[in-house]
Design brief:
Blueprint: H1 28-32, H2 36-39, H3 47-53, H4 60-69, H5 72-94, H6 128-163, H7 168-179, H8 183-193, H9 198-224, H10 228-235, H11 240-248, H12 253-276, H13 287-294, H14 303-330
Helix pairs in contact: 4-14, 5-6, 5-14, 6-9, 6-12, 6-13, 8-9, 12-13, 12-14, 13-14
Length: about 325
């Protein structure tokens, strides 16, 4: 027959005074005679300490920049591009000529680079140094602005397109309608009906370039839309934009950054095409306009093509290498 032991202890009957016990083997009887404060200690609860157990010092963007700076070649390419863009503002200050007030002098036409004209002169005898750097500044601002604009618009529409199933048919038909007509036709109509200024053509490029980004983002959203954490968020009543911003968008950052880096050289190339076709206002110099004007004189005066073409190539290479490295750094799978 089992004996039931009463575990209720009367604390008033327990000796809580301090005693010194000799070192050595502790016997059961000795342990039974020890005061309670030496046998037990009450565990205290601290809310701050409890939260600290699950605390992590991980920061997404800190990890991104840490991984990016590990790739020295990409950092050098990014520094080179920043220096190039900064020099477009410094070059006019050290030049003897103002790009906006160049005087036509046929006697100075087609001069090779010399101490007075550092990049030579064009077919109208105008200083080519000031034209090249002014055109570089215009092309970089145009390409970066258009690329950022179309990435922002394409990403927002792509997230909604891929997540809200009711809108899939509408955006798919809109994409098919706009994509089946060559973009150059839209650009030609806009240039003839509205204008050929850099601002108008830049807005027009944003209005049509977002299609490819939105389509790419939409396909990626399909991969994450019905995962367990998104289903749980919907069950808890989480709003649409919070789910898109917190649950889905972080997984797309690396792809979006890579697309942004590759679109900047593409915009410069497309701007060159528009200039070549005469759809861009020639009063505002750009690299595309300089390349178009120099195509007829390249064989006899190669410097007219070499300088702007070299800068376009430099911008393309720097953005490609730096963009690839930054895209890899944005991938959470590469974070430790």
């Amino acid at each position: 027959m089992k004996k039931v032991v009463n575990m209720n202890v009367d604390r008033s009957a327990v000796d809580t005074t301090e005693h010194k016990y000799h070192r050595g083997r502790v016997h059961v009887h000795s342990r039974a005679q020890m005061p309670e404060k030496q046998l037990f200690s009450f565990a205290e609860y601290h809310a701050a300490e409890a939260e600290r157990i699950g605390y992590s010092k991980y920061s997404y963007w800190n990890s991104v920049w840490k991984n990016f700076f590990k790739k020295k070649s990409a950092v050098c390419m990014m520094i080179l591009f920043v220096v190039l863009f900064a020099f477009t503002f410094i070059a006019p200050e050290i030049s003897q000529f103002d790009a906006n007030n160049l005087r036509i002098d046929n006697d100075l036409a087609f001069q090779s680079p010399n101490s007075t004209f550092w990049f030579g002169t064009d077919n109208l005898g105008r200083d080519y140094w000031s034209q090249v750097w002014s055109a570089t500044r215009t092309s970089i601002i145009l390409s970066v602005s258009v690329s950022l604009g179309q990435i922002i618009v394409g990403t927002i529409i792509g997230l909604v397109w891929g997540y809200v199933r009711k809108l899939d048919r509408f955006f798919t038909e809109l994409y098919n309608f706009m994509d089946n007509v060559p973009t150059i036709i839209y650009m030609t109509l806009i240039a003839l009906m509205i204008g050929q200024s850099v601002l108008i053509m830049g807005i027009a490029m944003v209005a049509f370039y977002w299609l490819g980004t939105a389509r790419n983002v939409r396909n990626l959203v399909f991969m994450y839309r019905d995962r367990e954490y998104n289903l749980a968020s919907r069950c808890l009543g989480t709003g649409l934009w919070r789910i898109l911003a917190r649950n889905i968008f972080p997984y797309l950052i690396s792809v979006i950054v890579l697309r942004l880096a590759l679109s900047i050289p593409g915009i410069i190339a497309y701007e060159t095409t528009l200039s070549y076709l005469g759809l861009l206002d020639v009063s505002t110099p750009s690299l595309g306009i300089l390349l178009r004007n120099s195509r007829s004189f390249f064989l006899n005066y190669p410097h007219l093509l070499i300088f702007p073409a070299s800068i376009v190539s430099l911008i393309t290479i720097t953005f490609y290498l730096a963009g690839n490295a930054f895209s890899d750094a944005c991938d959470p799978r590469n974070h430790v």
